[in-house]
């Protein structure tokens, strides 16, 4: 039978392995692994401190910005792999905005990687609740220090739980890595731009009825967009300057970071050509809330759909997978949008958002409906006094005019 000291040593070993897995995912920009970690961390905190923390993200969440909480004790935690001061400020601002302090007198942040040595915060929580970086920001080092001090039977209980659940949790995280093919190196872009927040769009468009080789796609795509002007307008990543890999199995174009002329706004983009498929990714980096109009994303998506239609000889069928995610509130902004002229409320990306569709025609109403489903990823979180609808409806006439304009530019008829 293991002794208490051995139990603790095993806990240290296992939690350090877990922290390493999370750090790897975090550097890849896969911050959705926070969700996979919530229940795992919740149980360890309950066993260590005697809480009865519950997952606040189940069902309809009334507590944006925090993930687990014990209403009886008035204690809540945000679980995050982002350790920077800006992230803490964002969390505290959200807690003040939604008055979480009325339910939870203590609000903590648990960092899944390692917290910073010190924090410089702009947000004052007084007189509503007290928040100290030294006390209320925790990581595994703090947790292990406290575990070491509790009675042996509880240390054993933690050991038994971690032993039984660690591999299943790591498996979920690894599935996140394998399922999410991140093309743009978000960690590198964030580091070079010194911007802590990002938004990412990825679309995968695959031809289902005909096998088209990589060389065939590459040649046909350049014929489909013959001029530099057309490429820069509809698929700007298709630029030989950005080509980093060329083979018969894949051609990869990538630009991890570019400036925009605005000091705190950068973007990265990538295009991967594989057999019968095009994968496009766009990332935005900033140090403030993100406003996006989805113009470049929608232009490239419609272009790729029309391209595969052009390649089809008889029956047309394509598979479309779209994912959007961010690590800060990302708002839809109508300026220069293809689908909306104005919005009367704030619509925030419900991150992560995923959409999987199959298309068998390129009729304008079909493409309009696809764009509407994408816009449904943005939700009105606050009451809208002009409408009871939490989802943003596109302007059908404007959207169809935009789609028809793209078709005309690319010489496509239904």
TrEMBL record:
It comes from the Bacteria. Residues 10-147 form the SMEK domain. It comes from Dysgonomonas mossii DSM 22836. InterPro entries: SMEK_dom (IPR047740). The lineage of its organism: Bacteria, Pseudomonadati, Bacteroidota, Bacteroidia, Bacteroidales. This is SMEK domain-containing protein. Pfam families: SMEK_N.
């Amino acid at each position: 039978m293991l002794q208490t000291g051995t139990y603790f040593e095993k806990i240290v070993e296992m939690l350090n392995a877990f922290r390493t897995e999370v750090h790897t995912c975090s550097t890849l920009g896969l911050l959705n692994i926070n969700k996979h970690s919530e229940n795992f961390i919740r149980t360890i905190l309950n066993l260590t401190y005697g809480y009865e923390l519950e997952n606040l993200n189940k069902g309809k969440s009334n507590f944006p910005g925090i993930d687990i909480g014990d209403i009886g004790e008035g204690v809540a935690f945000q679980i995050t792999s982002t350790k920077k001061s800006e992230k803490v400020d964002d969390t505290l601002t959200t807690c003040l905005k939604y008055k979480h302090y009325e339910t939870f007198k203590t609000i903590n942040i648990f960092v899944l990687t390692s917290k910073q040595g010190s924090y410089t915060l702009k947000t004052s929580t007084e007189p509503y609740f007290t928040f100290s970086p030294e006390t209320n920001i925790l990581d595994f080092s703090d947790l292990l220090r406290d575990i070491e001090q509790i009675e042996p039977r509880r240390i054993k209980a933690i050991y038994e739980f971690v032993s039984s659940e660690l591999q299943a949790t790591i498996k979920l995280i690894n599935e996140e890595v394998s399922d999410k093919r991140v093309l743009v190196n978000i960690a590198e872009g964030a580091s070079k731009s010194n911007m802590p927040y990002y938004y990412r769009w990825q679309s995968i468009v695959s031809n289902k009825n005909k096998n088209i080789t990589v060389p065939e796609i590459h040649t046909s795509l350049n014929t489909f967009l013959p001029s530099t002007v057309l490429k820069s307008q509809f698929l700007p990543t298709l630029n030989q300057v950005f080509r980093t890999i060329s083979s018969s199995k894949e051609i990869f174009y990538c630009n991890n970071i570019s400036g925009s002329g605005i000091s705190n706004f950068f973007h990265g983009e990538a295009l991967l050509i594989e057999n019968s498929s095009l994968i496009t990714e766009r990332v935005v980096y900033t140090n403030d809330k993100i406003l996006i109009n989805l113009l470049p994303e929608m232009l490239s998506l419609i272009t790729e759909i029309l391209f595969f239609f052009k390649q089809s000889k008889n029956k047309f069928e394509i598979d479309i997978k779209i994912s959007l995610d961010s690590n800060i509130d990302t708002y839809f902004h109508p300026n220069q949008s293809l689908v909306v002229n104005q919005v009367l409320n704030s619509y925030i990306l419900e991150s992560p958002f995923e959409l999987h569709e199959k298309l068998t025609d390129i009729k304008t109403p079909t493409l309009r409906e696809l764009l509407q489903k994408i816009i449904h990823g943005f939700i009105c979180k606050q009451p809208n006094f002009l409408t009871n609808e939490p989802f943003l409806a596109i302007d059908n006439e404007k959207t169809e005019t935009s789609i028809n304009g793209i078709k005309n530019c690319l010489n496509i008829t239904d």
